[in-house]
Design a protein that fits this description.
By secondary structure, the chain is an all-alpha fold. It has 12 helices and no strands. Helix 6 packs antiparallel against helix 7. It is flat, with a radius of gyration of 28 Å.
Length: 297
């Protein structure tokens, strides 16, 4: 009975996905009018990575998943940091979901050919669990990669702020300090900063607006605050050097705090195998005595 229900649910979900893919729902008229009247959005600064085999296999399923509202706003920010497009991410989710759904079935057929029948009920449950795990695995991978890149970006931003402060102390202007400081650093973070400033020059916008847009795309609050401080210095002539020193110090303090937290978490994780080994040793030593006592009763 349970196997029949599971197969029926899977068939219904598959037919529903095919119907949504073949006849996608139309957006409401108000949404189309708002889209026409909305001002054109600025081109994204963060570029996406090249697409691979997973995107080619799962691209037919990307549009139905996008119609369901996937991914979320937070996931889109993580994708921008990780350098992946939304279509690529949805294609990865679909590919891994289908792979997880079909892999236990293939294993069941292989075992059946070897005269080993594990039962279709177990295969169905395993297929659903592996498909669910494959569907959420890209989200976890992107979130971990985005967190690591944001940490590296904050570390590079602290060095960038110190370089700007030194150049401002030497008598350079705001625009010159921003351009000269970013040309010294290397790595992914400085590459994104250089691309933002180059985009500002090509589009004839202010550098701080491009930096603010980059901070919004990467979801790095410190970069947005830096853009606001530089905007005050560029438009209203306020003294910004003290503010940059304070922001650089706050970033260094946060990086040290995060490093200490990661070290303490690693120490706590190392204590778990020791506790497990100690528990296994107690069981190994105490089991013969306990078995003797229970056997004599």
């Amino acid at each position: 009975m349970i196997t029949t229900l599971l197969w029926g649910a899977g068939l219904g979900v598959g037919l529903w996905a095919l119907v949504v893919y073949a006849f996608p729902p139309r957006p409401p008229l108000r949404a189309l009018i708002n889209q026409l009247n909305a001002p054109p959005a600025a081109p994204p600064i963060v570029t996406a990575a090249p697409e691979g085999w997973a995107h080619r296999l799962g691209s037919p399923f990307a549009k139905p998943l996008a119609l369901l509202g996937l991914p979320s706003t937070r996931a889109r920010s993580d994708l921008a940091v990780a350098g992946k497009t939304v279509e690529h991410h949805l294609a990865d989710k679909a590919t891994l979901m289908v792979t997880g759904l079909m892999l236990p079935v293939v294993m069941h057929l292989v075992l059946a050919a070897a005269d080993i029948d594990p039962g279709w009920g177990l295969t169905t449950v395993t297929s659903l669990l592996t498909a669910l795990g494959g569907f959420f695995l890209p989200d976890l991978s992107v979130r971990k990669d985005a967190s690591r890149r944001r940490s590296l970006f904050r570390h590079a931003l602290s060095a960038y702020l110190n370089l700007i402060r030194v150049l401002l102390a030497g008598g350079a202007g705001i625009d010159g300090a921003l351009s000269d400081a970013v040309s010294i650093g290397k790595g992914w973070a400085f590459q994104q900063l250089r691309r933002a400033l180059a985009t500002a020059k090509l589009t004839r916008t202010t550098p701080w607006s491009a930096l603010g847009q980059l901070g919004a795309e990467l979801d790095v609050r410190q970069l947005i605050e830096l853009a606001a401080s530089v905007s005050l210095a560029g438009t209203e002539g306020s003294r910004v050097r003290a503010s940059l020193v304070a922001k650089a110090s706050a970033l260094r303090t946060r990086e040290l705090t995060d490093a200490e937290g990661e070290a303490q978490a690693a120490t706590e994780r190392m204590s778990l195998p020791v506790v497990m080994l100690f528990g296994g040793f107690l069981i190994f030593v105490g089991y013969p005595a306990l078995a003797s006592v229970l056997g004599a009763m």
